[in-house]
Design goal:
globular, five-stranded mixed β-sheet, disordered N terminus, 17 helices
Length: 527
């Protein structure tokens, strides 16, 4: 244990040394004029309400309006946000030292009590397994925050990346933040303040906050224009009506890339996707999804090369059974997923699923009719239809159930699904112990309800690991577990395309929020 303490202490020292050398943007060093008066960004992500529970609005809340204790830079390193520095001796008690000059957009100072309130209020009102590990939060003074976990967690900083810091003086009297859609709900402490949301017009407006403690950003106003479909958005980009396109943890269709290449006015950033753009998740609490032979049979029934062609125009990659995309930290090569209908049918035969009545469709081993259900949101119907075709070809009478976004997640959260299709985000792959464990582990999101002892021990060992070598070894074991047990099947891997108009330069993508990065907000400039 002493070796682990020494390792953590060394990490803390490195953090402090790194932080002391980070350049901070100071207001007095910047011109009185903004480099850019207005930046117009197009998106197909839709905002329904300006509250802290709207998934799309919280993207802008996290990037523009407020700040967590830390953030990641373009290289994926943890760097200061509201916390100027932090330390821990054991990965269980974490102490953060806050910036002294930060204020909310109404001028009230940001204090450690606000962060304490946020960490206690949000889990109570919105839920979320990311904060279950917190035992207590203390604010001994305005600039010091102490978070005590119920067990060591070397990956705890990752959770803090998505903290929606709230002003206590506003939210302490809000009983239900899901229904709090007044402009005050968007008061934050970030470089931009909320100006307006015109739902009918599909327009969000943000303006630089003059009192921002780290100085003035490069752009005075940022407008987010929401489009119903990608074709209309691309047309607006080609006409110069928008300056860039932004889709959280995603990009435009590869079929639109030739238009960008042919245009002299447009460029693009190719961003390595450490998330899985589409995966099939199976609920192991239900039969026959609890049988690894059935899950393996599904893995062989899928034509991955066809999916790569259909959904990435051939620019994507065939995934491996280890689920974690190549290019991820501590990636190891496992079995490449491949289409083999004969193998799929042999495995299904082994489970006892055969065609009893001669209609070409398999019944369960007990002779009962079997219609596996694929749950999808409306934007994934095409993927579901193709998977249904694959399953039909090996004798499975797959059915598709389509719901809206809220209905979809209600079913998944209640573990009422058999199978569903959903992506993972880069941050999602990092949560809990990293390496998609937050999605898999039944103690966290638990989409496939993985709760066997071997996996739980791997997750707990990863959380307790303080050395790079041990983490790499455990990461390999996790990927080998996924490859053997197949709790989820990645359908393809990709990198995503973020286009922009070349009249502005300085777009920098970070691994979490893409081009809506701190570096873009402060470094963008006319070409």
């Amino acid at each position: 244990m002493e070796a682990k303490k020494d390792s953590i202490s060394n990490l803390s020292l490195i953090f402090c040394l790194l932080l002391s050398g980070l350049p901070m943007v100071q207001g007095e060093e910047r011109s009185d004029n903004y480099a850019i008066e207005k930046l117009v960004i197009g998106t197909t992500n839709q905002v329904e309400d300006i509250n802290v529970n709207d998934n799309t609005f919280t993207t802008y809340l996290e990037t523009l309006l407020t700040k967590s204790l830390i953030r990641v830079d373009q290289s994926g390193n943890f760097v200061p946000a509201l916390a100027e520095s932090w330390e821990t001796d054991d990965a269980e008690v974490w102490t953060f030292h806050l910036a002294k000059d930060a204020t909310w957009h109404d001028g009230v100072p940001v204090t450690a009590e606000d962060i304490k309130f946020s960490l206690e209020y949000l889990p109570e009102k919105l839920g979320g397994s990311n904060w279950n590990i917190i035992e207590s939060v203390q604010a001994p003074d305005n600039q010091t925050l102490v978070i005590d976990l119920d067990s060591p967690d070397g990956n705890f900083l990752t959770n803090l990346l998505m903290l929606r810091t709230l002003p206590k003086h506003i939210f302490e009297n809000v009983a239900d933040p899901k229904k709090f859609n007044e402009p005050k709900s968007a008061i934050g402490c970030g470089p931009y303040k909320f100006m307006d949301f015109d739902k009918a017009a599909g327009l969000l407006r943000f303006q630089a906050y003059d009192g921002y403690y780290e100085g003035r950003p490069a752009v005075k106003e940022i407008d987010i224009r929401m489009f119903k479909n990608e074709d209309a958005m691309m047309m607006a980009l080609l006409k110069g009506e928008i300056d860039a396109i932004y889709i959280y943890s995603g990009g435009i269709s590869y079929y639109n890339v030739p238009q960008i290449i042919e245009s002299e006015e447009l460029g693009y950033i190719l961003i390595e996707n450490t998330g899985v753009p589409a995966a099939l998740w199976m609920n192991q609490d239900k039969e026959p999804y609890d049988d690894v032979r059935f899950r393996e049979a599904l893995s062989y029934a899928i034509d991955y090369e066809e999916l790569v062609t259909l959904f990435t125009a051939g620019y994507g990659r065939t995934p491996t059974a280890g689920f974690i995309p190549d290019g991820s930290l501590n990636y190891v090569e496992t079995r490449e997923l491949s289409f083999n209908s004969t193998q799929a049918m042999n495995l299904l035969n082994e489970t006892g699923m055969v065609d009893v009545d001669g209609d070409g469709l398999r019944e369960l081993a007990d002779g009962n009719k079997f219609q596996p259900q694929i749950l999808v949101k409306s934007d994934s119907v095409r993927t579901a239809e193709i998977l249904k075709k694959y399953m039909n070809s090996v004798g499975l009478d797959a059915q598709i159930k389509v719901t809206d976004g809220s209905g979809f997640w209600e079913i998944v959260d209640a573990k009422g699904h058999e199978m569903f299709i959903s992506r993972t985000t880069p941050w999602g792959m990092m949560m809990e112990a990293g390496y998609a464990t937050g999605y898999m582990d039944t103690r966290s999101n638990g989409w496939p309800m993985v709760d066997d002892q071997e996996f739980i021990e791997l997750v707990d060992s990863l959380l307790a690991s303080f050395s790079d070598e041990e983490t790499a070894r455990l990461a390999r074991s996790v990927q080998e577990y996924y490859a053997r047990e197949l709790p989820a099947i990645a359908l393809y891997w990709n990198d995503y395309v973020q286009p922009y108009n070349k009249k502005y330069q300085g777009y920098v993508a970070d691994p979490i929020h893409g081009i809506l990065s701190y570096e873009t907000l402060f470094g963008l400039h006319p070409a």
